Amino acid sequence: EVFTSLSDLQKVLLTEKDIALEIKSHIEMEEERLKRLKKVAEDYERHSQEALSDIEKHLGNPVNAYLLVKRFTIDWERIVDGLVKANSTDLIARLHNRGSEFPVQEDFEGAATALLRLQDTYNLPTAQIAKGELQGVKNSPEMTAEDCFELGRTAYNAGDYYHCILWMEEALNTLDTEVNKTADRALTIDYLAYSLYRQGNIRHAYLLTQDLLKIDPNHPRAVNNLRYYEKLLETADQEKKRGEEEDLPEIQNQRLLDDYRKGQEFKQYEALCRGEDIIPDPNKHKLKCRYTHNNRPNLLLRPLKEEEAFLDPRILFYHNMLSDFEIETIKRLAAPKLKRATVQNVYTGQLEPAFYRISKSAWLKEDEDAVIKRVNQRIKDVTQLDMTMAEDLQVANYGIGGHYEPHFDFARKQEETAFDYIHGNRIATWLNYMSDVTAGGATVFIPIGVKVFPKKGSAVFWHNLYRSGEGDFRTRHAACPVLVGQKWVSNKWIHERGNELVRTCGLSPYE
Ligand SMILES: O=C(O)CCC(=O)C(=O)O
Ligand SMILES: [Fe+2]
């Protein structure tokens, strides 16, 4: 699955370069082959001309007879095998034999789904995406009618008629402007009409199907569909007991959402990702920033700039956490180990990939490199928490539209399997941003309306648990889909055990 991380897609670009070389060398070979094949044709032509000019004399010579037969047997096989058969099967095998860097259908569907997700989350008009404009950033070519069509078809195959309508309409608009048409108008209308019907626009489906029949009068499905839509319209008209033609209603096209996505939280999550202020922070004027060193030798020499992002729960932002060198080292160590991120199944305790978390991640141990040790030490110095039970440093790279939907970092009571008693629950999260993200990719805390935008070298820190060990539900957070650019993060999950005397209980469970 190369679509789940941009790091892997980078390899695909190199593959593309190799492929160009392979094809070019193949063409050279083929040109050579055709040259020799042409010589064979000329030789046959010349030979037959000579022989035909005096057939009897020619065939009267047994050597000639022998040679003629040989031309059609022994020589012939050599010619067919060596010169007539093209070697494209070899080429195909060689091109495909490149292992995991070769994107496959699943990757295409992943990339298509990601584009549609970005369209929804960031409220992007279809025409703008087709023009390659993403929130004012333009660095892709315009999509052809066929590019739009294939996106619509992927949506269709997933039963997503909402996006199918948007993209088939875009395909038709683009077709109108194309000199060299890249898509089939009839087929596009076919998909569009049916999707319109599925979204409850029978009259529109009916009219479009009529258009389709003008292009292709014998289209078998269109003939049947037209009759079917006609019937539906008749019944609808009878029910309304209205004889008169009414105006064409506006197209209805509702986004397809499951129950969770229809709910309040998901709406708020998407609004936060777009940078909207969903809950004004009443304590905004009280937020402070300072240099922090905690009297630690390393930090005294290099204090961190600490900024409060929210007071309760306390969310802290650190401006100068990692150096470029440290970031490059962490990325370099993690790149070969990146694997599709998994989440723990609440019921089985098993780790499995999930559509709501699309990124690749790797774990780095402290002894792998001095940089890891140094970064871990810095986190310890700043948070003053005990790290004995902390998890290894996790590195994540988000792919096209990569995201992590709202979740808690701590395990809830019903997920007893998630964390053992030796380590305890995840008391706190330290999250390093290891790249700037051109657009999108914020970390958002939904219940409190906080959004943190990644900045290379900076970090955020928060406690997931109250001092009592109760989970703090206000820390529910998410990683918004990356709209433009790359997103690399690394994080350290710190656990309860060892911190009993560092972060002691208060008087109430919720402080
Ligand atoms: O990448 C982010 O912004 C947040 C990641 C996160 O919440 C997690 O990995 O648990
Ligand atoms: Fe998280």
Q: In words, what does this structure look like?
A:
With 511 residues, the protein is of the alpha+beta class. It folds into 3 domains: 2-101; 105-240, Serine Threonine Protein Phosphatase 5, Tetratricopeptide repeat; 264-495, q2cbj1_9rhob like domain (Jelly Rolls). It is 45% helix and 15% strand. The chain has 17 helices and 19 strands. The strands form 5 sheets. The chain has a 9-stranded antiparallel β-sheet, covered by helices on one side. Helix 3 (62-72) packs parallel to helix 4 (74-84), helix 9 packs antiparallel against helix 10 (185-198) and helix 11 (202-215) packs antiparallel against helix 12 (220-240). The longest helix has 48 residues, at 6-53. The two termini are 43 Å apart. The mean pLDDT is 90. The structure holds 2-oxoglutaric acid and fe (ii) ion. Residues 407, 409, 477 line the site of fe (ii) ion.
